[in-house]
Amino acid sequence: MTVKVSHITHIDNLGSIVRQACLWSDAKRIELGLVNQNIGYSHIKQRRLARPVKVATGGTIVQYVPFNFCPRSVMLFVIHKGHLDYQGGQDRILHLISDTDTIRLTNQHCFFTDIHADLDYAEQIDDFSRITELDINRIINERYWQDFKEEKQAEFLAFESVPWATIQQIGVKTQAIANEVNALIHMAAHKPEVVVKPQWYY
After folding, report:
1. Does 2 appear as a known binding residue?
2. Does the annotation flag 48 for ligand binding?
3. Nearby residues of 159 by Cβ (< 8 Å), 6 or more positions away
4. Quick one: which H or E segment has residue 4?
5. Rounded distance, CA 155 to CA 70, Å?
6. Residue 86 and residue 79 in contact, taking contact as beta carbons nearer than 8 Å
7. Does any domain span residue 171?
8. What positions constitute the catalytic site (predicted)?
9. pTM of this prediction?
10. One of 29, 48, 72, 92 is an active-site residue; which one?
11. Is 143 annotated as a binding residue?
12. Domain count, the chain
């Protein structure tokens, strides 16, 4: 069963993603010296530097490109409210949409977790026949998630890089941002569909 997945990033990072023709993991991006507009918690990124991966090709979580199984993620809510490491709000955040099968065709070192991958007790699973165990429709895509915050943050992770060509859609909050995105990808060989989805935001 293939499942849609969503990676959020700031629009300021889109030009670099297109030029590099891929999404790099945080570890690889740092190794390559690429500048990035961070939108996440720095302390969580530090924890992910040390969190071991026991499936796929091993390493640590920071070596993998993370995706959620839904738009309007818990992290986007944090971004919307603002935190010490990023105060820019959600309006310029993009949802880069693909699916598990498309990414796995280009990267054999993938796995998923049943809850937030950063947690000690998250199960790391590389048997994709088990992806049906995730309750995507009733929990992960639920609009009100206070009672199952951890489950909503289940992750799909791909080792080191995800090709730009696997991104099928770019979800944005407003038509103004859609216009900016279309201008940024105008000359790209691969141009995902840009969709205005205010319901994917807070």
Report:
1. no
2. yes
3. 25, 56, 57, 59, 63, 64, 65, 107, 109, 110
4. strand 4-10
5. 10
6. yes
7. no
8. 48 (proton acceptor), 155
9. 0.96
10. 48
11. no
12. 1
> Is position 182 within any domain?
no
Whether 181 is in a domain gets the answer no
Catalytic residue at 193? Answer: no
9 labelled ligand-binding: yes
Could you list the residue range(s) of the whole structural domain that residue 119 is in? 12-89+102-163
31 is catalytic: no
Contacts of 49 (CB under 8 A, 6+ apart): 27, 60, 62
Catalytic residue among 29, 51, 155, 160: 155
What's the rounded Cα separation, in Å, for the pair 88 and 136? Answer: 29
Are residues 148 and 187 in contact, defined by beta-carbon separation less than 8 angstroms? no
Report angle CA 141, 76, 28 to the nearest 5 degrees: 105
Confirm whether 78 is domain-assigned. Answer: yes
Nearest 5°: the CA angle 17, 24, 121 is 135
Residues 6+ apart with CB under 8 A from 47: 118
Please count the CA atoms within 13 angstroms of the CA of 6 that sit on its side-chain side.
24
